[in-house]
Specification:
The structure is a homotetramer. The first copy, chain A, is an alpha/beta fold. Helix content of chain A is about 30%, strand content about 20%. Chain A has 12 helices and 14 strands. In chain A, the strands form 2 sheets. Chain A has a 7-stranded parallel β-sheet, sandwiched between helices. In chain A, helix 2 links the parallel strand 2 (about 25-30) and strand 3. The longest helix of chain A has 15 residues, at about 150-160. Chain A starts with a strand and ends in a 16-residue tail after the last helix. Chains in contact: A-B, A-C, A-D, B-C, B-D, C-D. The interface between A and B is large, with 44 and 44 residues.
Chain lengths: ~350, ~350, ~350, ~350
């Protein structure tokens, strides 16, 4: 099975290389970015002798003819243009940007401040939250790979939202992310000197992942009201933690909810529920496709705290993309993704 | 004016040294800890040639006779024992531990799991939240210096709580702290290898600062219900950020609330309110006694997000302790505390 | 092929788990440490659902009977005692400590300040610098797995030492290491608060890896004089860089030396020589068994600068140990070790 | 005494603000950079309410008329152009760039690859290594403020070079720096994601500070031969450590050399010599103008290891600049510079 990667010199792109290089079924056929005509190991010396492929210009016809699937590890706005060139080709597309995620294009305009992709494409795209959309993913041609924050948030919230255990207007998500999510383009705010020994909050109540989370929550439970969503930039390279607060409607205790989560995710090896009294730390999923979840009900307030961690480049981007590709091609979901966490 | 410091080899203790060394009125008379009979610069080489005082054993009589004020930079449980030895001496006490903070000793037992100090001492101790208890602090003999998390939380919440703008059961505090707050005693969880490239949540709904926050909130507004309070360990040395979420009762906008905060803290130079659309980062108060606050109302949810940052060793410990000492001795609050933030 | 690990709860031990878990030939039969009778995932939650084996007490007879090879991921001094219990068993031993490395036990006493293992064991132990002792390793029963600093230093120096291109008294090694090399036992010096935003030099001219480096250099070239060796503690978790300075005897240029190194290591996939004008960074080998080397001759001084980087837990400990096990059991050296670097 | 700062929005510029804001004699008269017409606190929110001055365009006439001294916190190449506009004004200049440092302009061309300032300016500029050029600095009009690496290196080497204790061709300087030295301009190599958990060596044998170090060493001892000089980028914001290796000519021991250093720097409060057996760490001088030095002679090799640390933005830039200004205006050298290190 042949794959192409567009946007290979970004951090999600090079993470796709790391995964696919040792994937037993997918074969990296061609890699593309704007930095053409040099070996990938000139841009990323850590790949020396591992992959010495050249970065090529994009030739839509060749990609369409020669590859079975293409990963778009490109920013929002760019993916739109690529998708529009690729839709007529006989190739599956997995887009890691936000361009195919929002079904209502007016929401895209409002939150992304860019031109949306046309509705016909949106309609046929499948939201690739692997654990929850497996059936649609199997038959999809175009996958909107979920955002990093939505992945951690939605996997953490799904069981209690679906069970309708939560007061619909009470959802607060306090999210923290490492810097690799901000990408490789130099900017003042992501310089070492500015991020180190620091914690910054950004896009308060304005993050473009908000409507993506709400769209999926409402598909599970139509009563869900707008959420409060905050994002913080951590001085770490990899990892996202979402600390989620919800008001419980019923009198539920921690044990019962842990049981619910364990049952819900029993068949989903990438979601691990932590034992009572313990919570996941972001380093404990580093370099893997795991989403680890811890839970605690506070009897004093009737509120449930959900802690969900992922590696933003893996389950939050490249890992889930490969998981979706596995599903699309009928492979076991874990194929090529059975990394142990890099700890310490 | 002569000062003694007990617990000088801890991080709050050595921060007191840094401040008091250049304080124009207070003079460091004696320093104490269990690591006696060595120069402080043997324990902390950065103090070489700056302070070459010996660390001494505790002699309560001498301290009481020779010093005007003693800072207890000691852990909860230890402070209790020291206070009980010092109450009969003619000396003011500023205790940086949690031992004098909770008026209801059953709450101390419940959250600290230790024996409380006797009620007569609790009654006479004054909670040293400098910006709000100035009058009581002026005439106090014993100061319960506030905890690091409560300081950031309470300064951030005070104006809207006092104005009764907030739904009483809606307060959620998502707090993040650097490692210096965990102190200098080696433990597995605070090793570099465990904290670096990591984010950990701890004491979920069980942190001993919870009742301290609630006690003060209820003094401002008796209706306040139990809060939700979470703490995270950041891979930074100094700094606390509290991200606070509250449901507004009235339809208030960001501008109006920024005005309220600016007016409230107009005469309080250590509290800085950030302009609309901007939020403080923890590095921006590093090494200073500032508490910086940013605000945003989300029209979609009617919720207010308050972001409050301090340097946990300064406004969260040693800095506020010296601010309180300044007030107790009739000095300008800023005396010896006019550091500019160390940035970058 | 069955393996046992003693010292599994240390950082090298858990890294062995990470490697061996996905090794296609070796099977983890039993894991041991002093923290017995709990699942490894209680000590290391990142291993939840991956390895749920119990940590067992050491039963030398059972280990000897049931396993084919045992890894001792234990500190110097402890390994000695374990080896003495295991030598009569029919089991291969790979010791990651310094106890079997120095052929002259008086050097061990001088640098380690401990009792040495008996000479008969030292004589039969093989120094497991995989790229250089392959033949002896194949037939060895007991492997002294090299130290982290010696591995980076020796792979960097070997070609020019063997060719006798270097003034024998001119070798200076300025080494820098991450904190995982200091192990998991809490100590003041390895607290996050002490290591972060810091760089410390330690054991100046006194590091116990000095005689290990000199012993091997002299086996390559008997003229070699004592070296200067300094070690620094970096604020990173993983990685060692050695910056090595030597005076060249002949007039050699960078191109010629790069050719020499490429030829020397042509058949050794874990040593990668960087192109002229570029140097390796420690993150570029993170999580892998690579040793990357860069070279530059300064015409002004006639000195050669060699830069060599490894992941101290991999090529500097667990990775090289598995590489040696592969060699001992006739497998391809890379078996189970073909990780791509985790970058970023 | 009125001062102007050009290049105020760079890291050395804002560090000058931090120092000068609390300086008892110098008064910040005007601040300049290319980011004009906004308050400095819009660029650096940590300065809110501390300094609310506007950043102004450069008006050479006004600066010359109204200020007594101007600090050029500008890059090499820019300073040249500014100096040429300012030389006719009645104002002292302290230039933090490399433009005035090299007396031989052909060396500037060779190492900086830029046009040099004209010789008449070079001749009259005084190299502001405060501890060694005090007399010339007193009467200087134009100061070439030393580079960060040269400051740490030269203070560490001076006593043994002047005493001619060192083999002239044996000097090796292995230098490590934090990222603030790389400045505030975004670039790929200084992104958090690239620097974090990493150590990179750069400009091997090609750093432009090499001739600056050699020029001063030769003024102390004409026999000195070219040095070997390497620079590494540390994952820390502030701090430089230089680890210096020299071959001793005579049989000297550590005690004797520590005495020599203590005597040499006895009257120089910013240089602190560490007790035998101990070495400085970079955090121990953070935020101060100290240069701390540790020494060790290795009897096995006859080599001396010198470890010298500074805060690159302080003694390596803004701090030494103010120290020089103090000397130029007849003040005590420590005026406004008596910060205690920020530790932890």
């Amino acid at each position: 099975m042949k794959v192409s990667i567009i946007g290979v010199t970004g951090y999600s792109g090079v993470e796709l290389l790391r995964i696919l290089h040792s994937h037993p079924v997918f074969d990296i056929h061609s890699i593309h970015s704007t930095k053409v005509d040099r070996s990938i190991s000139e841009e990323y010396p850590h790949m020396l002798h591992i992959i010495d492929k050249k970065v090529e210009d994009i030739d839509f016809d060749r990609i369409g003819e020669e590859s079975d699937v293409v990963f778009l590890a490109t920013p929002s706005g760019i993916s739109k243009r690529l998708v529009e060139q690729l839709i007529d080709k006989d190739i599956k597309i997995i887009d890691l940007s936000g361009d195919l995620r929002l079904k209502d294009s007016s929401e895209y305009i409002q939150w992304y401040k860019k031109d949306p992709v046309k509705n016909s494409i949106l309609t046929e795209s499948v939201y690739g939250l692997s654990e929850w959309n497996e059936e649609s993913i199997q038959s999809a041609k175009w996958i909107a790979n979920p955002g990093c924050y939505p992945t951690a948030t939605l996997l953490g919230l799904a069981p209690v939202i679906i069970e309708q255990f939560v007061e619909p207007a009470s959802i607060i998500v306090d999210a923290k992310s490492g810097t690799s999510g901000a990408g490789k383009t130099p900017s003042n705010g992501t310089l070492y000197t500015e991020v180190n020994e620091n914690l910054k909050i950004y896009k308060v109540n304005e993050h473009q992942h908000t409507p993506e989370i709400e769209q999926q929550l409402r598909m599970w439970n139509g009563e869900i009201k707008p959420i409060t969503f905050s994002t913080h930039l951590l001085p770490v390279t990899r990892g996202i933690m979402t600390t989620i607060y919800v008001q419980l409607i019923e009198d539920l205790d921690t044990d019962k909810l842990i049981d619910l989560y364990k049952n819900t995710y029993e068949k989903h090896p990438f979601v691990r529920i932590r034992p009572k009294g313990t919570f996941p730390a972001i380093k404990e999923v580093c370099s893997t496709n795991y989403c680890d979840i811890g839970l605690h009900v506070d009897k004093r307030t009737g509120r449930l705290t959900i802690v969900s961690v992922i590696d933003n480049l893996m389950k939050g981007a490249a890992g889930q993309a490969v998981q979706n590709a596995n599903i699309m091609f009928g492979l076991d979901q874990q194929t090529g993704l059975n990394f142990s966490p890099l700890y310490p």
